[in-house]
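Q: Structure tokens for this one, please.
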Amino acid sequence: MHRDIACRNCLISVKSGVVKISDFGLSKQAEFYNIPPDERLPIKWQAPEVISTRVYTVKCDVFSYGILLWEIFNNGEMPYKGIDNKTVRQKISDPTFRPPTDATLPIVIYRVMKTCWRGNPVKRPSMAQVVRYLADAPPELFLPKSSQPSNQFLASRPSASAVQASCGKNAQGRRSKSCERYSAGTSTKSKERTGKSNRTVDNRRSHSNIAGTARQQKSSTIHRCSSKKSTRDARKSTRK
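A: Here is the predicted structure, written as tokens:
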């Protein structure tokens, strides 16, 4: 147990960017530690049970890690700024009393903070779980919280192919009612589109036939007029 997890005790390499924890003066190699009454504590980084029982466990380091994350994403600002240690002692047992967060915080960091800050130490994750969660989190979770609702909504909407694929027969060879409703709706819409398409084609054919008939009638009229004129010319020629 480190017992003093905070930004002030983190060293970062300028070349590699590797971060290492320092200052092990308060660390203990044990499952728990009874803090002496006269030992001073960095109150604003301590878990609620440390304040109330003065017993330190590994899960207390997890709570402090949540405060460390808050420091990192708030440019090293002091947690509970403007609030004195006495007030923090009195209010820390309230699960809603935690450093404030805003919409610029990546959703994955927000979730880790909230789980690390749980009042019940049993419900906090282990550091190994935190590491796995951060390593496996998809890239979109590192976006600010403000951009998450629309992204999650779009991501949560299944594509038509995905829904159709999920409508396959189950182990008993039967389709679910929801899938049947989807298929029925899809079939109806498809028939409606097919009907509209057929009507459009028929209308086009009808217009084409009418236009063709009109052209034929016009051509026939011209031909008859031409024939009559030729006959009149022939008669005039005979009379002469």
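A few notes: The chain has two domains: 7-157, 176-235. Strands lie at 10-12, 19-21, 32-34, 55-57.
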